[in-house]
Amino acid sequence: MRAVCWRGKKDVAVERVPDAEILNPRDAIIRVTTTAICGSDLHLYDGYIPTMKAGDILGHEFMGEVVALGKNVRNLKVGDRVVIPFTIACGNCLFCKKDLWSLCDNSNPNAGLAETINGYSGSALFGYSHIYGGFAGGQAEYVRVPFADVGPFKVPSHLTDEQVLFLSDIFPTGYMAAENCNIQRGDTVAVWGCGPVGLFAIKSAKMLGAERVIGIDPVAGRRQKAREWGATDVVDPDEYDILKALDDLTAGRGPDACIDAVGLEAHGTTLGARYDQVKTSLWLATDRPMCLRQAILACRKGGTVSIPGVYGGLLDKLPMGAAFAKGLTFKMGQTHVHRYFKPLLERIEKGDIDPSQVITHKYNLSDAPKAYKQFLNDRDECVKVVLKP
Amino acid sequence: MASTLLAVAAKSATGDRSTPRKIINAMPMTPTNVSAPERWVSLAGGAALVGYGLSRKTPSLWALLSGGYLLYRATTGNCPISQAVGFSTADSTAPNAAIAGRHGTRVDHSVTIAKPVADVYRFWRDLENLPHFMEHLIDVDTTTDGKSHWVAKGPLGLKVEWDAEIITDTPNHVIGWRSLPGADVDTAGSVRFRELADGRGTEIRVELKYDPPAGQVGTFVAKLFGENPDRQVREDLRRLKQILEAGEVPTVKGQPHGKR
To answer: For FRET with B112, which of A123, A368, B74, B178 sits at 20 to 30 Å CA-CA?
Structure first.
């Protein structure tokens, strides 16, 4: 089969690899009909995530048709059309039972490695480095899905692939980021990063009752998209002092909640951003937490900082003093995708949201190298890329 | 030292009732006067000397003779020269059952399993389940009299075997076992169970002690071969949890990938 393989920093290739096979009794094999490149795939592409090996198959946003089932998967049948959560979860451990699926105890074959770095291991993810389990991803013609009796979610035939594909990651991720803000009617929410997760967070914040949603992004095309998706205000952080702008927009209160939908690779022209760039390029720091610093400083007293953006290591110059002084609440982590499938599918069916509108580019799977390059470099035009195997 | 290295090696290669094993068993008993670490050093040194002796165009008689002597010393634990001068480095107080105070390796680990204590206890009490999650075990056979025969992977690809008996068994609380005299590896272990409140599962605490075929040097050699006992037990307990909770052990072995 054809698969998108990571070869090294800024190098992906479509290679012929052996077909995916059932390895465990709870596995299923899915023929991928549509897959996408996630913003977090760019962290892999840029070489920011450790424990990648040349030849690893990428992709954690995918859906398709069931073509084979392990002997313990009884709730699916061959031919079912399913969306797959990017987090792999067993469904039986303490965390799965508590609806904290991305913290599953039993899905990561390399849990020992994750424990040495993080203390405890979260769930495995598809196509996202060996510390997250080393599972082959879904940017391929076929993919093996472990614990297929609890993961894959059947979707109705009247909805297109493009409408339901993003239930696999970015829609639940944006939604959970907004839900984590504990939004009260009339709240103001600021969102750093108007890429796909930021857009879903903006839309979700509105759906959950926020009165004002402020989108922050240096890319004009993305600010425009944010407005289309429901942002009441947008700010260009390269043009305005973001802390002053947010203080002005909220008449001295600060946003009730701040969402960092950027994560470890923040770009910027401020002194802080340059400092992060120098430190990470010298390997003196692992992450560039510029947006997180701003979110902490901007947030109102007693407010919430919600972090769907990915962080990987040790963060420098994080204003914990300000966080403490203002009594902030932090909410973060990988998305508990399984929890959101049903309610968010209902939102799509009711017409509250059409996730397919985030798509700006479609390519054949064979054009993946070009698609990655464009997604990285053309941020103005290219917001979301889907690939068709 | 419960049995000689030579016997372990021969049994591993040819089986318990094989001719070489019988020959070794029939060999006259010589007093053991070489300590286990020293025997490993002799084994390595002897093998190197014999290898060197054979690799030369004209085989070196000196190297072959002294290498052979060291190999004899390593495999039998008897040094005729030491014996002649009345010198011994072997520990004459070594116990013949379980493990004495300062000896061997002790590993303990604990894990929480989201299952009722009765399920976890029952799974462990059937000792034949142990090889499902203890990677170094090849097989455990239980007999009706409470005894069991264990076969495990030893260092350097050798198989080691022993008989064991259950010495403590309080259902849903504790199971304890130890090897019987004559084991290749003197070993003892216990597992304690504690049910948590509100259906949070069961804590289990495992303690294993074993006296590897060559004492501390054996542990060192095992580490060289990636068999760190501490990590091994931690990963064993992780597999136990995965089997009991998820019904399978997650794996990526055998999945496709591009050019490495």
So the answer is: B178
A-B Cβ pairs (cutoff 8 Å, strict) = 100
A90 shares a domain with A185:
no
Q: What angle do CA A167, A169, A171 make, to 5 degrees?
A: 60
Single pTM value for the model: 0.82
Q: Does A35 touch chain B (CB under 8 A)?
A: no
Alpha-carbon gap: B227 to the closest alpha carbon of chain A (Å): 15
Q: Are residues A17 and A163 in the same domain?
A: yes
Residues A104-157 have pLDDT tens digits of 999 999 999 999 888 999 999 999 999 999 999 999 999 999 999 999 999 999
Q: Each residue of B85-97: pLDDT tens digit?
A: 555 555 433 333 3
Domain boundary residue, one of B17, B51, B85: B85
Contacts of A144 in chain B (CB under 8 A): 255
Same domain, A103 and A11: yes
Is B234 close to A112, i.e. CB distance below 8 A? Answer: yes
pLDDT above 90 (res B124): yes
Which string of b and e fits B32-70 if b means at least 16 CB within 10 Å? bbbbbebbbbbbebbeebbeebeeeeeebeebbebbebb
CB contact under 8 A, A19 and B256: yes
Distance, in angstroms, between A71 CA and closest chain B CA? 12
Mutate to test the interface with A, among B255, B259, B260 (most CBs of A within 10 A): B255
Q: Given A20, A24, A112, which is nearest B256 (Cβ)?
A: A20
d(CA A223, CA A214): 10
The answer to whether B252 contacts A20, with C-beta atoms less than 8 Å apart, is no
Cβ-in-10-Å burial (0-12, 13-18, 19+) of A111 comes to buried
Per-residue pLDDT tens over the stretch B163-193: 999 999 999 999 999 999 888 778 899 999 9
ipTM over 0.95: no
Surface-to-core class of residue A78, CB atoms within 10 Å of its CB (0-12 exposed, 13-18 middle, 19+ buried):
exposed
B251:A109 CB<8 A = yes
Element holding B241 (H helix, E strand) = helix B229-246
Do A231 and A348 lie in one domain? The reply is: no
Alpha-carbon gap: A110 to the closest alpha carbon of chain B (Å): 9
> How much of chain B exceeds pLDDT 90, in percent?
39
**pLDDT value at B77 more than 60:** yes
Mean pLDDT of A266-281: 73
Tell whether B235 lies on the interface with A, counting CB pairs under 8 A: yes
CA closest to A1 among chain B residues: B256
Say how far apart CA A377 and CA A166 lie, in whole Å. 22
> Nearest residue of A to residue B111 by CA position?
A105
The residue segments making up the domain with residue A277 are: 174-332
pLDDT tens digits, residue range B13-57?
555 555 555 554 455 445 566 666 666 677 777 777 777 777 777
Q: A2 to chain B: nearest residue by CA?
A: B258
